Amino acid sequence: IHISATIASTTAQKASYIRNRRQEDAHYQKLVVDYLERYIEASRQDIRELLYPILPEVLTTEQKNNKVRNLLNAMKWKGLIIPVGIKLAARWRLPSSYGPAPAKPKVNQG
Questions:
Q1: What is the pLDDT of residues 71-104, one digit of tens each?
Q2: Please, are residues 83 and 76 in contact by the beta-carbon 8 Å criterion?
Q3: 4 falls in which pLDDT band (50, 70, 90)?
Q4: Cα–Cα distance between 33 and 71 in angstroms, integer?
Q5: Angle at alpha carbon of residue 11, lines to 8 and 14, rounded to 5°
Q6: How many angstroms separate the CA atoms of 5 and 17, rounded?
Q7: CB atoms within 10 A of CB 92
């Protein structure tokens, strides 16, 4: 059940209202960027663990999965993050932290 701010105020459910209201995607995007600035990369599971506790309580697990997926895709298309790897196994990074792969050590042939 969604309640308005006015009803929440009169029924002493202010905290519940704040937890369940829709947050702007920019809020979640900032958290993902902060995480990547600190830890360089993140798996989809890492990002779920970051965001699930602060997504509205009224969302089902499937809805939360969709929210995270849509958020990552939107950030990718905006150029805010890049996937490294394939599909669900991809790790997410900031474009500035993605460089060439480390050089392979040379093997002496002699």
A1: 999 999 999 999 999 887 899 999 987 655 444 4
A2: yes
A3: low
A4: 12
A5: 35
A6: 7
A7: 22
Between CA 45 and CA 30 the distance in angstroms is 17
Spatial separation of the C-alpha atoms in residues 61 and 51, rounded to whole Å: 12
Task: Give Cα 28 to chain centroid, integer Å.
Answer: 6
> Which residues are 91's β-sheet partners?
43, 84
- Give yes or no for a contact between 37 and 94, defined as CB atoms under 8 angstroms apart: yes
Helix, strand or coil, per DSSP, at residue 92 = strand
**Single-letter amino acid, residue 2:** H
- What pLDDT, in 10s, does the model give residues 31-47? 999 999 999 999 999 99
DSSP state, 2? -
pTM above 0.85?
no
